[in-house]
From TrEMBL:
Mitochondrion keyword on record: no
Gene Ontology terms for molecular function: 2-keto-3-deoxygluconate:proton symporter activity
Transmembrane segments: 20-37, 49-72, 78-101, 108-132, 155-183, 204-223, 229-248, 293-314
Organism this protein belongs to: Candidatus Avisuccinivibrio stercorigallinarum
Keywords associated with the record: Cell membrane, Membrane, Sugar transport, Symport, Transmembrane, Transmembrane helix, Transport
One cellular-component annotation, GO: membrane
Protein name: 2-keto-3-deoxygluconate permease
Family as reported in the entry's similarity comment: Belongs to the KdgT transporter family.
Keyword Membrane attached: yes
Superkingdom in the source lineage: Bacteria
Length: 327
């Protein structure tokens, strides 16, 4: 019989009843605080440090811990998984979107600009990927967050638009995003005790960085974006997630864990500023910035909720989650 005291309110168990709940619920709570009571989290000291500005540091810690789980033998699969996600979440959707708009000869249709749809489709949320992979996947899945480090930002949007000539890969930012993973790999391969020590990092930090990420999502901006942004986010979450699922299933041969691919069908929170950055590089996009920003904000929230739920549902339906638990 367990000596663990019984919970007065089983908060953790309640969150776990929802697929991806330890990430989704804090994210939604954070967005509520960030919209209606932002000053409450800006009082400073440890309160602000933990609940408002902790996401970058905590995700970096998770990346470092993830690197420790990657041995020299497993580095090949990590790169393979990264390539598949980058191909089906960014490159293929970007090419298809550009081809569609060029065929129609327009920069916008049905209230959706090419700036908006490219930003939503070609960007992915590394924090959500790490949250889902940390709960259901293995070190190879978690290491594939590198795809988000590569596509996170305006580079691919400017590249696909192909109008400014200023588009260049932010090499220093990409290197900075990968350094914690590399150091973690080095330390983990040198001393497995560090690997064991940091193994539960994901379960500890995911609720906290999810709440912090949520505080940056303004619900009023999502309302401004209206149904168009929500519908666009939902459609692209499913379509790009389905592409990554196909890559997991038919290229990586992950079997009943292929549903993990749906977790890549997201849009990162910092994608909200991408339309403005692109417009600075290409003034021709300026008229679309305000609407695109609102639509991207809506897509960020809907993808953060739908992608992990969809990934967990598919893995559970195909027996992947149960199989992993038994293993």
């Amino acid at each position: 019989m367990s000596d663990q005291p019984k919970a007065i309110v089983p908060l953790y168990d309640l969150m776990n009843k929802i697929p991806g709940g330890t990430m989704v619920i804090p994210l939604i709570l954070g967005s509520i605080f960030g919209t209606f009571a932002p000053d409450l989290l800006n009082i400073g000291s440890f309160t602000t440090a933990l609940f408002k500005t902790s996401s970058t540091a905590l995700i970096a810690l998770l990346i470092f811990a993830t690197g420790m789980q990657i041995t020299v033998k497993s580095s090949g699969p990590v790169l393979a998984h990264t390539g598949v996600i980058l191909l089906f979440k960014t490159i293929v959707p970007g090419i298809l979107i550009v081809a569609l708009f060029k065929a129609l000869g327009t920069n916008a249709m049905l209230g959706v600009s090419i700036l908006s749809i490219l930003t939503i489709a070609c960007n992915s949320n590394g924090g959500i990927w790490l949250a889902v992979a940390g709960k259901y996947g293995n070190s190879t899945d978690r290491g594939a967050y590198i795809a988000s480090a590569v596509n996170d930002g305006p580079f691919f949007v400017m590249l696909f638009l192909g109008v400014s000539g200023i588009a260049s890969i932010p090499v220093t930012l990409i290197i900075a995003a990968v350094v914690p993973l590399i150091i973690g790999m080095i330390v983990g391969n040198l001393d497995p005790k560090w690997t064991d020590l940091l193994r539960p990092t994901g379960a500890i930090v995911i609720p906290f960085f999810s709440f912090s990420l949520g505080t940056g999502i303004n619900l009023f901006a999502i309302v401004t974006g209206g149904a168009t942004g929500l519908i666009l986010g939902l459609i692209l979450t499913v379509l790009t997630g389905l592409m990554c699922y196909a890559g997991y299933k038919y290229i990586l041969r992950r079997g009943n864990m292929s549903g993990m691919g749906f977790a890549a069908g997201t849009t990162a929170g910092n994608a909200i500023i991408t339309p403005e950055i692109v417009a600075q590089a290409d003034p021709a996009m300026a008229p679309f910035v305000q609407t695109a920003t609102a639509q991207v904000a809506a897509a960020v929230l809907v993808s953060a909720i739908v992608a992990p739920l969809l990934a967990a549902y598919v893995m559970k339906k195909q027996g992947g989650i149960k199989a992993e638990a038994e293993a």
